[in-house]
Amino acid sequence: MPRKDPDPLEKAPLAYENSDFLNSPDGRLFRMMAEYQEPMTRFRKERIQDTVVFFGSARFRALDVASAELELLENTGSVKPAPADEQPARPDELEASEQRKRLAQAAVEMAAYYEDARTLAGMVSKWAMTLPGRRHRYVITSGGGPGIMEAANRGAYEAGAKSIGLNIKLPFEQMPNPWITPDLNFEFHYFFMRKFWFAYLAKALVVFPGGFGTLDEMFELLTLAQTHKLAKKITVIIYGSAYWRSVIDMDVLADKGAISRKDLELFQFADTPEEAFEKLKAGLQEDMVQGAAWEREHVPPTGPGVPAAPAPDAQTLLGPDIAKTR
Known about the structure:
Layout (H helix, E strand, L loop, with lengths): L18 H4 L5 H18 L5 E5 L42 H31 L10 E4 L5 H11 L4 E6 L16 E4 L2 H11 E6 L4 H15 L8 E5 L1 H7 L2 H6 L12 E3 L2 H26 L15 H5 L8
Parallel strand pairs: 1-2, 1-5, 2-3, 3-4, 5-6, 6-7
């Protein structure tokens, strides 16, 4: 019996439009490459030269201390509040448990750190905007979420500067904070690619009080500096000495031989925005001297100031006149 002719086939999807392939284990390499190249393209377009990275807790809402309406979040980056019994006590709750009273005290403390991060980010941004050059220098960068991250982006926004948010896709609901420059708002799937972009552009790091994520990010960059895997000097400010000395005793690490005494010079403590700013500025000015010497040797001079228009892409700027595809 003769076989029936097959029905007409639909066109196969182009490989780069095949979502089943791109989202499969075999497509992982392309997803990782995209999380490198797409941010690189945007940073070039927005003329970002380097960054100052802020790390810190995301778990507290960004509200004024006087409002006393702070909420503890369910998880880092989440928009869902923690259960009622884990929320800090409010002033009108006389029968609050000892745990909730401790959380209330901590909430006020964390709100103060929020305000300090906001102030410091504004100080750095205002100073950076006065610097000459063809690109934006020392752009405030955060993990893109709430809490200290929001405070950093907010301080830069209020100073009239660009700022970057490197968010991460998590299993629970989260949103980028609204103070990030829209064209510099990123979301990553891979933690390691997000960490790459934290380290790759950073000339300075400010570590505010935080938890597991903050510790992880801080020690990752300190390890890169300690092992000389960063081909640059990075200024590290650990903000809030009382908090951090109660969390981890770096001197014990040196006393026990786990790190060298010289490793303690990889970071500095600060307790006020003014103190942190002066230490940051000293480190960044040293970086500028080295960078200016390199630019005089390698980069042709241009007009003053950073152009307002987005930079042309590499194809437009340097490549041959290749016809576009349709």
